[in-house]
Design brief:
Length: 97
């Protein structure tokens, strides 16, 4: 399954309601799983972002739909990076002329 790195920043709404963030995160994981995805890593971080996650989704379309839903809830804004495993990278390099 394709992997994605999610860089997330809390919105004003998200930080005002931070006490409910653990429950929101669990609900998000359940929604991801219901869409056929899987959370591999979730971290709260310090710096330019508040959270970083690595997820798998069945397709780019499923990932985009999931992220649009998360954005529409108003608690986080995301920057998404499509990720390739070491093995996928190795196969790409083998195809170079």
């Amino acid at each position: 399954m394709p992997k994605y790195v999610l860089l997330m920043k809390l919105t004003d709404q998200g930080i005002k309601d931070i006490k409910n963030a653990p429950e929101r995160i669990e609900d998000t994981v359940k929604g991801l799983e219901a869409a056929g995805g899987k959370l591999e890593i979730f971290c709260t971080v310090m710096g330019d972002y508040d959270y970083v996650a690595v997820v798998e989704c069945p397709s780019d379309e499923v990932a985009a739909t999931f992220l649009l839903l998360q954005g529409s809830l108003g608690n986080v804004r995301t920057t998404t990076l499509k990720a390739f495993t070491k093995e996928e990278f190795t196969e790409m390099v083998k195809k170079l002329p």
